[in-house]
Structure formats: C-alpha cells, structure tokens
Write a structure and sequence with these properties.
By secondary structure, this protein is an alpha+beta fold. The chain contains three helices and nine strands. Strand 3 and strand 4 form a beta hairpin.
Amino acid sequence: MAGESASEEAPAGAARSGRLSHFRQAFAMSGTMLTALIALASGGVALLFQLSPSLTPDPRTHLGAAASVFAVDDGVTLGSFLERRRAIVSEDEYANEKQAYIRQASAAAGGGDGSTVLTLPGEDVFVNATIQGFKSRSVAMLASMYDADRRTRVRELSDVPVFQQHVEAPSDQSVVEFWLSAPPVSVKRYFVRVQVYHRGDGALLGIADSKPIVAR
C-alpha cells in the first residue's frame, strides 16, 4: 500500500511541476510579447507624429515668440497690395477682402462710395514669426507706426490688428505679410513695430521694429 501511495504521489508531483513550468514559460512569452508590442506601438506613435506634426504633444519646455520685420515695401497702394495677394488666394477670398476694405471705408466716411480707399498709399510689410510652446492656442499680431525722430506712436496707426492664428504644432514658423497705411505728411521718418500676443491672457510674447524709413 505504501509503495502504491508513493508511486501515485510521484506522477502527481511531476504533473504539478509540469504545469508550473508551462505557466512560467507562458508568462515569459507574454512578457516578451508585451515588450515587443509596446516597442511596436511606440514606433508607430513616433511615425504618426512625424507624418502629422499637429498631433505631437506640446512639452511646453520653451514658451515664447520671436519676430523680425525683414522687409518693408513703401509706396504700395491698398489696391496694389490686394492685386499682389490675388496671385496666391482664391477669387472669392480676394473679392471678400476687397469688399471688406471698401465697406469699412464707406462706414468710416458716413456712407457713400468707399472704393477710393483702394488708392491710399501705404506699406507692404513682411514679418518672420516663430511661436513656441503654444500648440492649440491662439496668437495675434498688432502693428503700430512710430515717428522715428520723436519716438512716438502715430495715433492714427496704433495697435492695428494684422494677423491671428490658432497654432497647430509645438513650434510654428511663418512669414506674415500685411498692409499698413502711409503716415501723415507731418511724419518725415518712421518705423513699423509689431507685437505678438497670446490671445488667451493678452501676454506679450514678442516685439520687433523695422528699420527707419524716409517718408516719400
């Protein structure tokens, strides 16, 4: 009887040992497979961020903006500026921009034909802007003209909204082009100042001045 009992326990012990070994192997395989799946998923996410930068999380390690006014074409009428844009925008957008200026001029003059606004001389201004750390947030750019000799703002051309954008990537760089009316005849030399703001709280992110320009 004792011999039979011992012989029965031996196969049972061997079976338990076999099951434990099977579980260990299965666990090891599962761990290896899980590691491979995580690596594969991480690689896929990295590839997705390369193909679609707008989906990249914003680490917000660098916050701010840099701007530089790198070119100003003076003596450009509003009509000429819009014609330049006509080459790069749709006909509908061109017509909408043109009508918006005409309506504003008509309203400011108390009615009547506002198309004379298209003959106003001004400046075609180009700004290089870089925004960092403001993904999924909005920024705005304001422009002002200064009397270069008196270092004072031209009242009629102060804090003019020229650009706004909803930033789609952690770092965004673009060239902003806008038109600004010419200064009054009393201003002999002037410069253009641009200021970049975060639209959420109005924080000033960047500021830049053009070189002084001699009025025509």
